[in-house]
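Input structure tokens:
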């Protein structure tokens, strides 16, 4: 009977009731304002249903900024084709630039929202092209008439800017980031050491003396796609924070192409420039694809290596030739393409 009376007094004490209500409200408030951590020392043993449902949260182990540098060891090829009316039927001119090796050093960074709901990333790189060879083929009425070869050297510049939104699944082991961005890619080529391989349908090896021409072109593409990261090893032992598989797939629904060249061996061509190309295409105009392994020995440092492919294509553009007498001639740019393929290694600091 005494125990029942004491229990009844506790239940009816207004001071204790208010105290327990206050503790309950504080615990509820803390739980609502601190979502589950993105990564922590016991990541494999902590359940995180709220993070799986609402995306990634913020924790002391997460970071605000990624800054790094890398090398893209790659080879590029590109081509363009124009067509024009002629006396013997429609003529075509096809130029191809192949085998240009270029290690492109680059810098990159990513700034993240405190809860990693939104982030902005930027990459800039520039390098030299060497060791390439090109061909120039002219067709008259469907038959090959003239063909020449030449050496190529030059420079490559690229930059990429993306805005992405992050979602996480499976207790933050899988991170998926839809993104929208823009890519700029350009090459400035110099053509030297030319020789004819065919003249008027006859095989030849005649040198082209004094060849020193240029062709500069640039691509600007809208990027839409997904970035992903799967953490398949996470804190299994001391000194190993994380090993991840990363991938990126970006499609280009719109691409703008601009090119211009100077042909130094014809006096009837203007030299600033001799011709120019323009095309704006909508559709599947290219893609970026990346697949890589990331190794993080510590939570503030990461090394990443993998493969990277970029492809661009436009069609139905215009070619304008500028003559020394101030006149111009317009032809159809049937298509232009560019491919860069290789592997990269980069180091990342996480702050």
């Amino acid at each position: 009977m005494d125990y029942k009376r004491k229990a009844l007094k506790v239940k009816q004490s207004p001071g204790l009731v208010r105290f327990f209500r206050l503790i309950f409200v504080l615990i509820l408030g803390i739980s609502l304002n601190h979502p589950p951590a993105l990564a922590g020392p016991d990541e494999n043993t902590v359940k995180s249903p709220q993070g799986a449902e609402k995306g990634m949260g913020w924790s002391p182990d997460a970071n605000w900024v990624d800054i790094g540098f890398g090398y893209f060891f790659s080879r590029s090829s590109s081509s363009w084709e124009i067509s024009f009316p002629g006396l013997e039927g429609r003529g075509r001119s096809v130029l191809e630039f192949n085998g240009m090796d270029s290690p492109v050093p680059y810098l990159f960074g990513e700034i993240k929202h405190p809860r990693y709901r939104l982030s902005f990333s930027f990459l800039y790189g520039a390098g030299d092209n060497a060791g390439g060879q090109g061909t120039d083929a002219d067709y008259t009425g469907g038959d090959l008439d003239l063909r020449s070869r030449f050496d190529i050297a030059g420079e490559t510049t690229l930059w990429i800017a993306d805005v992405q939104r992050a979602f996480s699944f499976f207790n933050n082991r899988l991170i998926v980031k839809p993104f929208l961005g823009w890519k700029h890619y350009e090459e400035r080529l110099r053509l030297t050491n030319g020789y004819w391989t065919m003249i008027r349908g006859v095989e030849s090896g005649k040198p082209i003396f004094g060849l020193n021409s240029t062709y500069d072109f640039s691509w600007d593409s809208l990027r839409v796609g997904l970035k992903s990261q799967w953490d398949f090893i996470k804190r299994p032992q001391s000194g190993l924070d994380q090993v991840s598989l990363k991938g990126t797939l970006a499609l280009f629904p719109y691409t703008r192409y601009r090119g211009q060249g100077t042909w130094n061996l014809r006096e009837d061509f203007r030299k600033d420039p001799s011709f120019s190309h323009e095309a704006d295409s909508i559709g599947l105009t290219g893609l970026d694809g990346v697949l890589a392994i990331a190794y993080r020995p510590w939570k503030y440092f990461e090394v990443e290596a993998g493969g990277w492919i970029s492809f661009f294509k436009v069609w139905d553009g215009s070619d304008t030739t500028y003559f020394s007498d101030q006149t111009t001639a317009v032809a159809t740019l049937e298509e232009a393409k560019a491919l860069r393929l290789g592997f990269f290694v980069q180091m990342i600091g996480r702050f």
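The mean pLDDT is 84. The domain at 34-350 is CATH 2.40.128.90 (Lipocalin).
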